UniProtKB/TrEMBL annotation:
NCBIfam families: small_GTP. Keywords: Nucleotide-binding. Belongs to the small GTPase superfamily. Rab family. GO terms for molecular function: GTP binding; GTPase activity. This is Ras-related protein Rab-24. InterPro entries: P-loop_NTPase, Small_GTP-bd, Small_GTPase.
Length: 229
């Protein structure tokens, strides 16, 4: 693969503390889910990267997603701004079993539109989908409600489970593909046609969900990862 087929994309994760941002990054970067004492609240921010291979106009492109995982607590709010500045994409997370976390997602979305205007594509991610699959009454945020909110801000919505891996690669692959199609620095707000719910057979599901490179795929590089205090 020649150098000019490789592009870098800065992605930031935002959202209330404990909704599952770090677990989402862990699943994407390392295809693992940490439980129990392995869990540590993110301090400041953590960075990791992974390359995803996409097809664009008949040729292979490698998108290196540089992912910034931020701390969700309000204490670190001003720090989070440092990380979303200049991002090409933001994954704004909430937890499907916590209505309050969607309110926090609305806050972050407003912030992004205010400071980044339309330079940053927004993906609204409902985390911990496995919890409502196992026990539907736990659900506090409906898929339709989230999709409607996403559409109103030119974002795309999806529900994921980092525990089972459901929709995680689909989400990050979509982030990479949208970037390739839209071009760096272009108007990054998703059009009304693009802004719909992804996954679970929804109309936004990519035709090839199996397209993301995995650890067994030579086209993938499961990236290095380090933390900043
Ligand atoms: N069942 C389930 N638990 C999850 C999922 N994602 C995260 N968690 C758990 O939720 C807690 C907070 O997750 P974490 O990723 O640290 O949240 P963060 O503060 O947003 O980074 C941890 O105990 C995780 O194990 C998920 O997809 N399913
Ligand atoms: Mg975290």
């Amino acid at each position: 693969m020649t150098g000019n087929t490789r592009v870098d994309l800065k992605v930031v994760l935002l959202g209330k503390e404990y909704v599952g941002k770090t677990a989402l990054v862990e699943r994407f970067l390392h295809d693992r889910f940490l439980t129990g004492s392995a869990y540590q609240s993110t301090i400041g921010a953590a960075y990791g990267s992974r390359a995803v291979r996409c097809r664009d106009s008949g040729r292979d492109r490698e998108v290196v997603l540089g992912v910034w995982d931020t701390a969700g607590s309000e204490r670190y709010e001003s720090m989070a701004r440092i990380y979303y500045r200049g991002s090409g994409a933001a994954i704004v997370c909430y937890e499907v079993t916590d209505a309050g976390s969607l309110e926090r997602a609305r806050f972050w979305t407003k912030e992004l539109r205010k400071y980044e205007e339309d330079r940053c594509r927004i993906y609204l991610c409902g985390c911990k989908r496995d919890l409502v699959t196992a026990d539907p009454p736990l659900r506090q945020v409906g898929e339709a409600e989230a999709a409607e909110f996403a559409k109103s801000v030119g974002a795309l919505s999806i529900e994921t489970s980092s525990k089972t891996g459901e929709n995680v690669d689909i989400l990050f692959r979509r982030v990479a593909e949208d970037f390739i199609k839209g071009g760096a620095g272009a108007n990054n707000q998703l059009s009304q046609q693009q802004a719909f719910a992804l996954g679970s057979g929804g109309q936004g599901a990519p035709s090839s969900a199996a397209g993301v490179s995995t650890a067994n795929d030579p086209g993938s590089s499961r990236g290095r990862c380090y933390c900043l205090g």
